[in-house]
Amino acid sequence: MKRAWLLAASILLLGFIFGGNGVVDLFHRLEGPNPSHLFGTDELGRDLFQRWWLGGARALALGLGLTALHLLSGTTAALLVHSSPFLRRALLALADALASIPSLLLCLFLLAFLRPGYGALVLALVVGGWIPYARLSLSQLDTLKSDPSLQQAKLMGAGRFHRWTGHLLPRLWPILSAQCAVGIGAVVLAEGGLSFLGLGLPPEQASWGSMLAAGRAFLLVSPWQLIWPSMGLLALLLATEAMRSRDSLPS
């Protein structure tokens, strides 16, 4: 399963090389799938397959990159504060304050003051994403606090960094990996939703969300503009859910 997912992800990420935003060709607008355009063309005659491939690559790259950033920041914060009651309470208070605001509403609020683009989209999706990783890490660290192997490593003079990398992180990973799968799907879905609303990537840049938004007006004439990005989003979300279910099963 993991190898199949990695192969599919690699093929999708090749969209950065072989995909594209499409070339405007008004003489071939709203065409159905054909040998020249495998997925058909949109209202401007742009190749839907190229746009679909590049849009999927952008969505997956954003999901992988931001999930890694959320994992790193949340886990690091938990490791730094778990032994200090004051810092722990401060971190959890900040997490509760951010979690009290719906994530999409927080993204919309930030994007209202930022210029639409990849940088603004990344910044909006970064805020609050670290919270579940920090909470899970703190909860797991509490259960490992009295672990004999950790106590023995500390008595033998092992430094904090060695205890983190050699003893704590390997035990945190099984539960955090399941959260990572959820995080990838959440970021991809959020990016698609924001782009659909016109608050993500600019319309000229290929994105599954912007393709869905543009295709609504041509549903009866050219349903392909809605079918392909919808299938891509569904397949990607189902893949991340399958990964989460597999990682959450007891070994």
Topology:
Elements: H1 2-13, H2 15-18, H3 48-81, H4 85-99, H5 103-111, H6 118-126, H7 131-144, H8 148-155, H9 160-196, H10 208-215, H11 224-248
Q: In angstroms, what is the radius of gyration?
A: 22 Å
Give the rounded overall mean pLDDT: 81
Per CATH, the superfamily is: MetI-like
Overall spatial form: elongated
Tally the structural domains.
1
Q: Helices and strands: which structural class?
A: mainly alpha
The CATH architecture name reads Orthogonal Bundle
What would the keywords be for this entry?
mainly alpha; single chain; 251 residues; MetI-like fold
Task: Please tell me about this protein's structure.
With 251 residues, the chain is mainly alpha-helical. The chain has a single domain (2-21, 30-248), classed as MetI-like (MetI-like fold, Orthogonal Bundle). Helices cover 70% and strands 0% of the residues. The longest helix is centred in the C-terminal third of the chain and has 37 residues, at 160-196. The model has no long low-confidence stretch (mean pLDDT 81).
